[in-house]
Amino acid sequence: MYIYLDHNVADDISKGRYWLKPSDPDYTWVYSNENLAEIRRSGQTRFLAVLKDLQTVEIALVLDQHFRLTGEARILPYRDPFEVYDGYIDAVSEAPTELGPNVTLLGRLFGADNQERVLTVGDDLIEQIKILLEPFDLYSDATRKEVEAVAADLTEFASGALQDVKELEVNREAFGCHKGRATILEEYDNPIEKLWKLIKGRIPNMSPDQFFGFDPIDKQGYREWPVYLGIVGCHTILNFLGYRPDKGLSKVEDLPGILSDGAHIGHGAYCQAIMSADKRLCAKAKAIYRYRNIGTRVFRWNHENGLTSA
After folding, report:
1. Which domain holds residue 143?
2. Would you give the DSSP letter of residue 222?
3. Which of 65, 143, 144, 165 is deepest in the core (most CB within 10 A)?
4. What is the DSSP string of 19-66?
């Protein structure tokens, strides 16, 4: 049984709040590069000691020859997490992207006060792609023209519609799910299905899978949109609608950590269970897995009641 560990599990163990037995033949603890990203943001390598003590193994999303997700994931053979982390740092240090154009745009959609900053997303995108591709001689004239065309569209969007985005609660009111109305639906067996019934009259000509991110209209070259990306997108939509929303949504600097939750839920979908101490993450994970008929169990740890099924 593979059990994916949210980063806060390693955090609590490192602080002595509870303990887990190391992996054994009956169950294996799992982490992903999203855990490594959180460790990098924290600057605390004590989490790596926890992963090592638990004999935790890494799960990796499988890419094709064009670096696109195949929809599959692999559990990798055990390696010392300190060694894995060093390799991760080497890979990402050349092109930091956590506060890139995507996060800037998302912050504005969540109502962040960054109207001026968002005007630079086009130039930011061009610079980011150049940093990623030029060292490998992959930034051809054709690629440059394509990137510049996308950047121009982003700039137009940022200087137009994005400037008029209202506060998040005002936007939720437009969907009829303000003041906690979305979270109330948590008691139902399939909250996302219920949430769609609440809002669908305000979203004409769109299916629930399209709205919640599992079947986007623009599939960016994919024939079928990967479930992992659908989960990450759905997590963002649930936050936008106010379903067990995370704190700090309108603070751009907080968004990388919030987006990590969606990535953890996405990686957890390839395991038999996911474990977290975050009640918001657990609620959204349970709702997403139920909506997509994913069999991953959700376990929540809290200091009063111990480990429970979310």
Report:
1. 97-166
2. -
3. 165
4. --PPPBTTBEEEE-HHHHHHHHHHT-THHHHHHHHTT-EEEEEEE-TT
Q: Look at residue 139 and tell me if it is in a domain.
A: yes
Examine residue 108 and state whether it is found in any structural domain, yes or no. Answer: yes
Question: How many whole angstroms from its chain centre is CA 101?
Answer: 16
Give Cα 48 to chain centroid, integer Å. Answer: 21
Provide the mean pLDDT of the chain.
92
Count of domains in the chain?
1
Give pLDDT tens digits for 40-64.
999 899 999 999 999 999 999 999 9
**Residue 122, in any domain of the structure:** yes
For residue 134, tell me if it sits in a domain.
yes
- How many other β-carbons are positioned within 10 Å of the β-carbon of residue 116? 8
Q: Euclidean distance between the first and final Cα of the chain, in Å? A: 18
196-218 pLDDT, tens digit each:
999 999 998 999 999 999 999 98
pLDDT of 305: 61
Cβ neighbours, 10 Å, residue 50 = 22
- What is the structure's pLDDT at 18? 82
Sign of CA dihedral 135, 121, 249, 231: negative
Structure tokens at 185: 């639906």
